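Take one record.
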Amino acid sequence: MKGKIVFALAALFFATPFSAWAEHPGQAQLVAEVAKDTGKDPAALNALLDGAKRQQSILDAISRPAEAKPWSEYRQIFLTPARIDAGVRFYLDHQALLEQIGKKYGVEPQYIVAIIGVETFYGRLTGKYKVLDALVTLGLYYPPRAAFFRNELKTLLELPDTQLAGPVDTLTGSYAGAQGWGQFMPSSIRDFAVDEDGDGRIDLQNSLPDIFGSVANYFVKHGWVSGGPVAARAQPDAAARVLTPKDASPQWTIEQLEAWGYAPLQHLDPGASSSLQTLQGANGPEYWFTFKNFQVITTYNRSVMYAMSVNQLAQAIIEVVHALENAPR
């Protein structure tokens, strides 16, 4: 009799649909929300999520971000001769399209290139994690930032097919679930990505017009000032006031910062609104006036070091491009 009971229980176990006994924590609630908001089939949503896997390597990766390094080390990741040279070639290879989109949106093309250069080495390293795995892992198994990543997972499931480069379960990207050459999270795809080539689909993996246009549109929607300054070096005197801004929001005029002991190393509008950022360089602290466009870059990644890397890469690329254009022939 006991053997028959065990056999019956085993048969019931294997006959039970996988999702009923191995679904991810919070899956049922998530599916219910997406189905309610979009009208999508709950069975299809469950099938997608059942196929996603919790990845320990993703949890490991998010625990050791590059932003934990000091500026002197962080800068060396992105401001390498190889990345600058590749950026120059990328700019020149796509110059007409970049300058067309830059003019349309009012965003200097070198900053579009620099974002792509920092994020994916100009499209070479877009990430090998399944986006669905990444967002399930971080949204449902990573309590420190579960609210943010669960919202991104929900957004991914709600995006229409025309806003994705392919079926949801085939998309690949970073360990954080960012996709394409510009590494857009699902909410950024929803809010800022554009169908620049007009083919009826937003493809941030294969369409250069969509990729460039989406980065430019992201900047514009976050307040990019066309032709505006990004960052400039400051030299403190011995009695300079210690400033610890909480973020990159411009909050003081250059004139005020000069009065507090920070002298600009180039001509700047005394009335310009700025912030002051301190970075730990190889030879000691570096002091920088930063402006609205610098803050816009930090909306892409909150790290001040990230924004400075993008700015310096953009400057390095455009200096070489201009030198080549102005060289004797």
About this structure: Residues 2-21 have pLDDT under 50 and may be disordered. The beta strands are 129-130, 172-173, 231-236, 252-253, 262-264, 273-281, 284-290. The two ends are 95 Å apart (CA to CA).
